[in-house]
Amino acid sequence: MIDLDSLSWLLLALGALIVGLSKTALPGAATLAVAIFAATMPARESTAALLILLLVGDLFAVWMYRHDVDWATLRRLVPAVLVGLLVGVVFLGLSSDAVVRRVIGGILLALLAFTLWRRRSRTDATELGRTAAYGYGWLGGFTTMVANAGGPVMSMYLLAMRLPVKAFLGTTAYFFFAVNLAKLPFQVGLGLLTLEVLTIAAVLVPLVVVAAFAGRWLATRISQRMFDRLVLVLTAVGAVNLLV
Hints:
The chain is an all-alpha fold.
């Protein structure tokens, strides 16, 4: 049984609000929710509860940004993402929670450093070609499977592609809706998505919805420069949280 006191519920509520905002305004912020859920619930079961909330957020994001999608970018990522998901399933079944968190945190910090270097040198992912799409796609599939932490990885790739704010959010929305839906059978197969976990997630769903609408309002008022900076900062904070 998962025993949650009042403080635990408050923390989970905060995590649910972050999920909603991350889906419609602040990509990468969901990594903070990963850390909150893992600290409040058993780490492996927390990934299943968070997955349900992420899917709810995905539905609203897909609806809100249905006209702002870069389909060519998504098609380039699909093959590598599928490979990353399968590798993630094996890794999740064999590794401890501590190992999973540290591996993901280390990957995110390395990608952040690489992205900052590339932006300083004024190159972008289109110049790196299929190699970049495969590398980021593989890591995105792997990290989202093992820790629901694929958001920052894909944020680094889409930042490199220099997509406008709405195209960034729309492409991210469709990508993660498809990926998170594909993860459901694996969570059930691993015995992590139980009735108790579903009940906890159901209680938190309204907060995701409220935050998703608030995020939509925020996204229409944020500049491209500020948006890029927030994505980078949130990625760094999320990576450190996973390492600590």
